Amino acid sequence: MRRQIPLIICFICGIAMIIQFFIPHRASQIVFRRALDWTLVIGVFAFVLGIGSLIHVHWVKISRRGENWQYSLLVFLGLIGMTLVGLINGQEGRAFLWLYNNIQVPLDATMFSLLAFFMASAAFRAFRARTLEATLLLIAAIIVMFGNAPVGKWLWNQMGVIPLINKLVEAIPALPENAKDWILDNPNMSSRRAIILGIGLGGISQALRIILGIERSHLGGGD
Amino acid sequence: MLERLMNIDRRYLFLLIAFSVVIPMLLKVVFPIFVTPQPKKVYDYIEKLPKGSVVMMSFDYGPGSLAELQPMAIAVLRHCFSRGLKVIGMALWNVGAPLGEEVFNQVATEYGRVYGEDYVFLGFRPGSTNVILRMGEGISGVFNTDSRNTPIQQIPMMENVKTYDDIALVIDFGAGDPGPEAWVIYAYEKYGQKIAAGVTGVIISQLYPFLQTEQLIGLIGGLRGAAEYETQVNKPAKATQWMSIQSIVHLVIIIMVILGNVAYFVSRRRTAA
Predict the structure, then answer these.
(1) What is the 3-state secondary structure (H, E, C) of A37-87?
(2) CA angle B219-B225-B228, nearest 5°?
(3) B25-58 pLDDT, tens per residue?
(4) pLDDT of A73-119, one tens digit each?
(5) May I ask the CATH architecture of the domain B37-235?
(6) 3-state class (DSSP) for residue B54
(7) What is residue B83's DSSP assignment?
(8) Of A100, A116, A185, the CB nearest to B208
(9) Which DSSP string corresponds to chain A?
(10) Is residue A188 less than 8 Å (CB to CB) from chain B?
(11) Which of B104, B125, B230, B269 is 20 to 30 A removed from A37 (C-alpha atoms)?
(12) Residues A202, A203, A204, CA angle at the centre, nearest 5°?
């Protein structure tokens, strides 16, 4: 029974919302609005679950003196500190905004800035023309990078001084950008569209499995 | 020597990238920015909006994407205020709300715009796609107050803005999910809301299918798009300066990749011989 009731609720709500989508009547729209309000409220509970899980994981680590347990203390310091400051000072308060602008923003921005260095190093090592596919990837990457950077067009225009190339530069002044656009508008777009279609069909399939009770992992526990 | 080049300690590569950033910055290198079609479409659409039209800007990014998207948002907001448009700000990411508010505070002061009459910042609400859907049924259903806890009914600008029908354009500055795809799927498809997107360079390519079908009216992509928009509004600022620096870094990476491949092929030929 413990598993039957949630499955029945899931089935009824799922089928009801599918039917509701096709009914333009005012009563149907009222049901839709109510359902959205409920999902907004339920969404907030996800925060509570997430925070509870975070606290549990790090509390266990601290109590067992796990590896790098000191960092878990920092997690608690940040979590409790920001929460208290926000509750006391308000989210528009000077203290809260100071903490956000002077700690979180620089730390977050720094983490992403490090990616530039690692990506450059990875590009140097990984973009080797070992196979046909790797060669195509390499050529596409160089064309897109060259076409995207303003220095690419500037360099191409400067190459007009070379006798053999100047006619090509005059004929196609925006060749780097045109090549980049062709790659993005053709092979890239078609493959992305295929991925979106696949994700969409997979999502429909998964939703039907959940509504019909075939997929039960969201209930938790053993089957 | 070729072996050493191919297996060079990556810290030397990090140093090379660092110099590629610092030296152009100190020398104030600036390359001309050429405007491409996609940011131009966003610019032209806003340019054609009648004075007093309402535009909504959604700040769906965090501090990690601040370098690319903040200059973009500032340039677009400058354009909107210079055209006499009214702007609503909001965020689907909790970390995006303070960043968005910073953009409004800066640009509104420049143009002497009045809060509540020319612009309003609604803040963040959890729920991502549900927020997008619920706003279609009534903005006050999800944003009953603004970020300053003023009831929305007391804000003069929001008097005639109830749903997407009253909004001319939504511009989503996105760095992931929820982002432009969610706005297209839920706001454009269900409510016919016109959507434009400003995104980080990493996710530009995944939005091209929406451009081709005109589900997005235009796309401002990465730091390059931000620099192009600054050029279009005739206010070159941080994005223009930073794009020149990024260009040099791109060139350095391309040269590194080519050198790495030359070393690889020469080394392979020697091994085969």
Answers:
(1) HHHHHHHHHHHHHHHHHHHHHHHHHHHCCCCCHHHHHHHHHHHHHHHHHHH
(2) 120
(3) 999 888 888 899 999 999 999 999 999 999 999 9
(4) 999 999 999 999 999 988 778 899 899 999 999 999 998 888 889 88
(5) 3-Layer(aba) Sandwich (3.40)
(6) strand
(7) T
(8) A185
(9) -TTHHHHHHHHHHHHHHHHHHT--SHHHHHHHHHHHHHHHHHHHHHHHHHHHHHHHHHHHHHHTT-TTHHHHHHHHHHHHHHHHHHHHH-TTSHHHHHHIIIIIHHHHHHHHHHHHHHHHHHHHHH----SHHHHHHHHHHHHHHHHHSHHHHHHHHHGGGSTTTHHHHHH-TTHHHHHHHHHIIIIIHHHHHHHHHHHHHHHHHHHHHHHTTS--GGG-S--
(10) yes
(11) B104
(12) 90
Check if A116 contacts B (Cβ < 8 Å): yes
Residue A189: list chain B partners with CB under 8 A. Answer: 208-209, 212
Going through B79-175 in order, the beta strands assigned E by DSSP cover 86-91, 119-124, 169-174
Nearest to B221 by CA among B239, B244, B243, B197: B197
CA separation, residue B36 to residues A148, A189, B77, B82 (Å): 10, 18, 20, 22
> How many Å lie between the alpha carbon of B51 and the closest alpha carbon of chain A?
31
B64 in Cβ contact with A109 (< 8 Å): yes
Contact B51, B84 (CB under 8 A): yes
Beta-carbon separation of B260 and A124 below 8 A: yes
pLDDT band at A198 (very low <50, low <70, confident <90, very high): very high
H-helix or E-strand containing B137?
A: helix B129-137
State the amino acid at position B71 in one-letter form. Answer: P
Per the DSSP assignment, residues forming a β-bridge with B88 are: B56, B120
Reported as type and span, the H/E element at residue B219 is strand B219-221
End-to-end alpha carbon distance in chain A: 13
Residue written as token pair 């049924």: B137
What is the three-class DSSP state of B203?
Answer: helix
Q: Which residues of A touch B131 (CB under 8 A)?
A: 40
ipTM, interface predicted TM-score of the complex: 0.84
Nearest C-alpha neighbor of B161 from the set B171, B152, B170, B151: B152
Radius of gyration of chain A (CA): 27
Judged on CB neighbours under 10 Å (0-12, 13-18, 19+), B2 is: middle
When scoring A127, A177, A180, A181 by the number of chain B Cβ atoms within 10 A, the one with the most, hence best to mutate, is: A127
Q: Which two tokens stand for residue B237?
A: 């600022």
Q: Taking the model in full, what pTM does it have?
A: 0.89
In the structure encoding, which two tokens stand for residue B129, read together? Answer: 């796609």
